[in-house]
Amino acid sequence: MLKIKRFWIVGLGLVFLVSCSTTKKTTVLQNPQTVVIKPSDVVENTVVQKDTVSLNKQINQQSSQKNTIDSNIALSSDEQARLLFNTGIHKEYDFAQAIHYDWRKPSYVMIHHTSQNSTAQTIRTFQLPHTKVSSHYVIGRDGRVVQMLNDYMRGWHAGRGKWGQISDMNSVSIGIELDNNGFDAFPEAQISALMTLLDTLKNRYSIPQLNFIGHSDFAPGRKDDPNVLFPWDKLAARGFGIWYNESYLMPAPVTFNPYDALKLMGYDMKNPEAVIRAFKKKYVRTDLTGVLTDRDKAILYDLYRKYY
């Protein structure tokens, strides 16, 4: 009898608890002041992204078409770049574009003279298949600037040579050709246009001041451009290349090694005499022998102290 009473009491207690709990919840839900939180429609309707990527159809189509282009048709530089870009996409794999990457950008500027008679002649030279030479810009005597390659493309202007540890200068530089037969002075309009272009390139690609060089710096003995009349001092005053303090030159100390200084600047010292001629053509301009005088050493020492 006692067991039956206990079960009965426990049963009544459970009914009472359930009843109280239900009443409280109902009261709360029915309270008009209470904000009812509902599942967001955006969340509910969002399709769950599976852990996979699908092939980009456009890239797939472009890649599949690369083999259908007639190799005998001359392509523009933009078309060639697009073709090369497409060949870098492997259509047999899925493709998902990453957002962290860099384009290859130039870190040097190399200045040339054309050794030809007109801007038009140089442009034609760079468009003939057999010449195998090109440059990014050509600047006429009248200041006209013609861009012939995208800055990010690798031009064929430097050739064999070395500057510091760089032997493939074409891959890291922009080439600028100045319309000049190799002997004439450079007109003011031409230099002014060059300065404007250099300022744009320096700021756009963060090119250091020391990285504006001539072709003869990179290939002494093989190349002599730009010629001895090129105003490197004016360029250096604007932050393009280097120059020494002409008003105050200190004699180089006895312990100063000019060959080590030239190597530190970037010159390839395999042919010291050719390097000295290239150095003197750029900074001395009068005596172009392959021997360093005391004044030549003073100039080199000043550059060494000032920039290196």
Automatic annotation (TrEMBL):
Example of a GO biological process term: peptidoglycan catabolic process
EC number annotated for this UniProt entry: 3.5.1.28
Q: So which domain of life are we looking at?
A: Bacteria
As given in the record, the signal peptide range reads 1-24
The record's top EC class is hydrolase
Report the residue ranges that make up the N-acetylmuramoyl-L-alanine amidase domain in this protein.
93-227
Q: What is this protein called?
A: N-acetylmuramoyl-L-alanine amidase
